[in-house]
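Q: I'm teaching a short session on how sequence maps to structure, and I want students to see two examples side by side rather than one. Could you give me a first protein with its sequence written out and its structure tokens following it? Keep the formatting plain so it prints cleanly on a handout.
A: Of course. Example one:
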Amino acid sequence: MIRVLLLALLAALLPAAASDPPGTEVVVAFTRTRFEPATIEVRRGARVTFHNMDAGPETLSVVAADGSFESRPLGRDGEWSHRFLQEGEHLFFLKERPDTKGRALVE
């Protein structure tokens, strides 16, 4: 009986321990012409989810200017996440539309 109660308690605590602390998840919406917000400030280890809000049929990929990450092609309402583990300024853009740029300031 005690073993069952301990397992139930452990199961209840695991999801909370595995989730991110408040403020470490940020959503950046984008279309083929802009990121919103275009600049984000996050802590090291923050997860940033890029969400394609473009109404067009083309897929779009988010790419780091330094080549450190690249999303899969995202269609309308597609999402992809990246965790920023290094401090500093990280520039990113849309692979299909390189003039659409954003940046993450990681502290």
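Q: Perfect. Now a second example for contrast.
A: Example two:
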Amino acid sequence: MKDIYSHLSEAYKFSDSKYFPKILEMSLSEKEATVLLSLPGAAEEVAKKVDMEKSTVQSILENQSKKGFIVYDIKEGEKRYDLDTSDRFTSSVMEMSGRYFEKEVLDLWAKMSDEEFSPELDEEGHGARIIPIERTIKPGKEILPYEKVSQILKESKTIAVIPCPCRIQFRKCDNPIEVCIARNDLAKLVLEREVGRQIDIEEAISILNECEEFGLVHEVADSSKGFSWLCNCCTCCCYFLRAQTKLGRKHAAVKSRYLSVIDSKNCDGCELCIDRCHFDALQMQDSSAVVDEGKCFGCGLCASTCPSDAIKLIPVRSPDHIPEREFKPNSFYL
């Protein structure tokens, strides 16, 4: 006979998961799970379903909303709650991971991410796009507005920064944690849930500059508009880059339109670019670094710290490489 957590896992559409029922059991009391299973509904309606005091149910609903397990909509002045069964559910919960979950739960999330979520990244349309470091693009070359971090930030009405859920989840490096930037509706959501803090464009750019120094890769949704997030990723922890480089998922990370090119006459052979490349796209040949064009993702990390200014990015893909679409709110990361 299935227990309440298995039933709740099915309600979340994770009926085949090896890990999610245990995650629920370690994260929710039976009383909380009972309330969540009774959704959708407003607090008073749910209280009648489960035969509890309205104040008790209201407290549970508010707490689980902050944790990301449920969502709400306001209808006729009243909050109506429901399970979050959208594509963004797992990332929504993981955004809250550092505050609410113990190490054992994070480890289960990590296994679920690698084994049960990442296979979707073998198909096109689910990955994140690498966005290049602006100053590394060769002068005079066209940069589209949705390829420029500065432009994306300037067009943001609200900006927030949150601790990187992937780095908290996997804990495989000592890179900076507070580096995930949320925009507009997602920024408002993380501020409401008290998991992020609001920042201005100057601080956002400062965070991005710091991430570049640490060798982190900028990523956004693979679309031409509607970005909700801007991540600064490593290959050991971050969902998309980890899936691409460690798990062999073919479409987890989408290349930028750019390619690194090296002026061998200016290259001094320091090999710094090789150390900074996450994709094994650089090697030494006749005392100069050379680029494997098939492996280069066009992030610009090699060029950003080249002491002899021997590396620049040039566009090698047409604008239609980036899909003309808006990233929908029910997709990964809102």
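Q: What should students look for in example two?
A: Point them to this: The longest strand covers residues 70-75. Also worth mentioning: The first helix runs from residue 4 to 11.
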